[in-house]
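Entry 0007
Protein: ATPase
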Amino acid sequence: MPRRIVITGGPGSGKTSLVMALAAEGLTIMPEAGRALIRAGRAIDGPALPWRDPALFAETMLAWEIRSHAAADDLSGPVIFDRGVPDVAGYLRTIGRSVPSHVQRAMERFRYDDPVFLAPYWPEIFGPDSERRQDAAEARATAEAMRHTYTEAGYRLVELPRASIAERAAFVHRVLGGTCAPDPGKPDPEKPDGATLDLGKQYPDRPHQGQA
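Output (C-alpha cells):
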C-alpha cells in the first residue's frame, strides 16, 4: 500500500481542492507549504517571500516539506501530501535558479511512494490572487517543471484528468487500487476548518486527519 502519496502540479490547477476533498473523506493530509508561508511572511513583513527573496522562500519550503515527511513516520495508513520535497527543486527551476546540492540530497533521502499525481495546467480554472501572483505562462511552466523534476528523480507520474473534484478523487482511488482509505483504527480526529486554513492549522504538531 502506498504510504506517502504526493499530489503536485502548477498553481491554480485544482490540486489543493482535490487534497481537501480527500481529507473530507477522512484521509490524513500534509498541507501545502506555499500559501501558509506567504501568509506568515506577510503578517510579519518578513523577508522569506517569493517576490522578496525567492531562495530564502525555497529554504523555508524545504524545511516544511522535510518536517511533513518526518511526521508521516508516526502514522498508519496512507498520507496525502500537497506537494513534496521535489517541488522545491521544481520551484527553483521555474524561477531560473540552480538546484543546490543540499536540495538534491533532500530529494534522495526523503522519498515518497509511486505513483505521484500531477495536476496539469488548466487554463479554464487558473486565476491569480493576492498570494498566487503567477500569470498563466508561469503556471504552465511550473506544472512542466514539476513533471520534469519528479520524473528525473525516478518517480512514476500519473496525470490527473481535467475533471470535477469528485471525479478526480475517484480517479485517485482507482489508480491506487482502492488502497487509499482512512485507517478505521484511528481515533476520531479534530476537524478544523479545511477551506480557510490559517498557519496554526496548516502547520500543527500533528497532521490533519479527516479535515472537512
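Curator remark: The radius of gyration is 16 Å. Confidence is low (pLDDT under 50) at residues 184-212.
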